[in-house]
Amino acid sequence: MRIIVATCSAEYTGRLKANLPQARRVIMIKSDSSVLIFSEAGSYKPLNWMIAPCTITEHHLIGLTTDNDHDTYLTTLEVASEKTTDHLVITLYEVFSDQTFDLGEEPGLVKDGVEDHLQHYLAEQIDRIGKGARLIRREYPTPIGPVDILAVDNQGITTAIEIKRHGGIAGVEQLTRYVTLLNRDTRLAPVRGIFAAQTITPQARTLAEDRGFECLILDYEEMKDEGDHSITLF
Amino acid sequence: MRIIVATCSAEYTGRLKANLPQARRVIMIKSDSSVLIFSEAGSYKPLNWMIAPCTITEHHLIGLTTDNDHDTYLTTLEVASEKTTDHLVITLYEVFSDQTFDLGEEPGLVKDGVEDHLQHYLAEQIDRIGKGARLIRREYPTPIGPVDILAVDNQGITTAIEIKRHGGIAGVEQLTRYVTLLNRDTRLAPVRGIFAAQTITPQARTLAEDRGFECLILDYEEMKDEGDHSITLF
DNA sequence: GACTTGAGTTGGTTA
DNA sequence: TAACCAAGTCAAGTC
Predict the structure, then answer these.
(1) Using CB atoms, which residue from A101, A106, A177 is nearest to B41?
(2) What domains lie within chain A, and their CATH numbers?
(3) What is the pLDDT of residues A35-56, one digit of tens each?
(4) Which nucleotide is nearest to A116 (CA to C1')?
């Protein structure tokens, strides 16, 4: 990992073109040659970047300082993608720091609470859609992608469940596609839909209910507690 | 901008929980107190982060080195969001570098080639949907969001155009929602749809054509040339 | 402030 | 490899 703090400008050409005027910034060059340019502003996204695999060519040129009173060295970093025509040219004017560190292996991040976990617990606790419900399977395959959960409710009705952490309109559309498709299967029809999420936007709830879907709010902590509890029981 | 290179571990609690085992990493602290933790792996996304507004509390503790042969100082950075309950605790074990730089103002990034530009040129060159077509307006407002372009084709039929750089199923769904809604307006009906993009996935094309929408491939460079050309003419 | 949409989205999984 | 879907997505614009 090489970290450069410098006055720089940059120009990116690829899926779009982007121009970065001269200013002080931080340039990170990872060991795979990927490059990130950061400013104080914004969140975690760099202003410009190049992802691996790419090749960096460093040129040293003689230029002038902004007040033209003496010669100075300019450096350009030409970063070219090896897979596409994308390229990024960074010009360094004044370099304040240029250090390289060996970070070694990254053991990786462990996450808890993603959609997959919601799906896991809801499949395990399928009674949450109504006492007596029975799980058919998680990730029930269809030609247009897997349905998060397919179940049979206590009335014997096939039930497709779309799970989101935050439910928006797009999720309702997704559920609509699945229910429409599954209803063409005479062995399953009629199929109803449940839109299950930790939070659901009012617009999405309205759309879902318009289409005859039930909305189910999921409490992750509660589901996790119940899941952990049943593990200790067996 | 403060840049720390150190052996660290981290724990995030917020919308989910995430745990980062001990390893050498780069920690960036921006002037607004936002924090980013990077490793060599992955692309521009940090392993963990906290966005502004947040408060950092730095604690210095006496701990033991991993081989327990002598005391050492540990530092923890406790980063708490000021708006939510999110918090991130970083423990620093061995610090290799800890420097602060003043980057000053960021003049900002200038982009060319985003969806907005496609929309601009297509509105200007509305003939691309058929000779004699006439633009009604860009960003035609509806209760469910603005339609990218509304036009009248050479048959006098109202035409809703959804523009994407890369057209996928979600874009077709979006167009469907708009066309369905606009068709309820007796002053506009019947309304047809055009799905316009630089690239369209085969599935999206199939879905769009199933729904009676025309698919239109846009050549950005060509549109830009034509746009620039007409500017020089007037 | 809530919601929708775009992004050089990135990243993971599967056909 | 291509396409779909989730993400602590982020960020901009609108209502």
Answers:
(1) A106
(2) 2-100 (2.70.180.20), 115-226 (3.40.1350.10)
(3) 999 999 888 999 999 998 999 9
(4) D6
